[in-house]
Amino acid sequence: MIKIFKSIQFSTAPIMFAAWPGMGNVGIIAMDYLRTKLNAQVFAEIDMASFFIPDSIIVKDGNAQLPEIPGALFYFQNNPDVIIFESNAQVVGKDGITIIKTILSLADKFNVKQIYTAAAYAQPMSHNAPSKVHYAINHPSLLNKIKKYQVSAMPDGYIAGLNGLLLGIAATQDINACCFLGTIPSFASNLSYPKASLEIIKTFENILNIKLDHKELEDSIAIVNRQLAAIEDRIKEYFPSAMEKDEEMPDVKEEEVPHYIMEKIERLFMEVKQDKSKAKKLKEELDRWKLYELYEHRFLDLFKDDEKDT
């Protein structure tokens, strides 16, 4: 299942980092940035063919073809000695367990003692609020070390997907693992949110005792902030008359309006994904707040799968 392209060695037990797509793309952005800045090189991959069941095809210029099989690559770097795993697919169920056990088998091969993953933690917060980093560990022995990085324990709850599976299965194999979760606005869960990724990157720097250039990530943050600010400003511009007509908002304070509306729009986007008949309600809400042009591409993307089936 693992294809190894290059024989590698480490002078010390390497630290492993791993990430998959998730809310706000927080984990994958952080991991990709770490890999790029360390100039880590590919040395192995997991063959994902047996885990990939396409439910549609891609048509370009009239030519139909199957979508590409998702990637699942291992990278390495010496000094600091690290292994970085990145995949662009979340796999659940028995296949997810198989993938995690495969990752851990490679970790065992290189005597990895610590694994760190990255994810998002959605909160009722403004995009202007600082992103904080929480942790979830799979063994108490990690606690003293983790606390040095100025992060706080994740509140009671659960971690879904491969991040959660890795923590649980690694514990059964006596491998210490920790998931760092950067807080993001709950209404931004379907958008890339690099602000949280940057805070996780800073935690990784402390772990590895290195310093990376943050400029590219900061540029991305500035772009996202402008997009979210434009949405908030548009809502503020039109909220007085709309509040008078909205019976759902009697207790909402003026400063809470943008957050309230964006959360409502996000809920509608999720509902339309499951039931296209609710698209009219979503479109009416976007028009009501004069937001359609800011969400147009995302709105139309909801119907791409339908077009492929025709």
Can you walk through the features of this model?
With 310 residues, this protein is α/β, with parallel strands linked by helices. It has two domains: 2-213, Rossmann fold; 218-309, no CATH class. It has helices at residues 26-38, 93-109, 143-147, 161-172, 194-208, 215-245, 257-274, 279-288, 292-301, 304-309; strands at 2-4, 15-19, 41-46, 58-60, 63-65, 72-77, 82-87, 114-123, 133-137, 152-153, 176-185. Helix 1 crosses helix 5 (194-208). The longest helix is centred in the last third of the chain and has 31 residues, at 215-245. The protein starts with a strand and ends with a helix. The mean pLDDT is 86.
Shape by Cα distribution: globular
Give the count of helical stretches.
10
- CATH topology of the largest domain, by name, is Rossmann fold
What amount of the residues lies in strands? 15-25%
Structure in a nutshell:
By secondary structure, the chain is α/β, with parallel strands linked by helices. The chain is 44% helix and 19% strand.
Kindly list the characteristics that best describe this protein:
nine-stranded mixed β-sheet; alpha/beta; 310 residues; Rossmann fold; globular; 10 helices
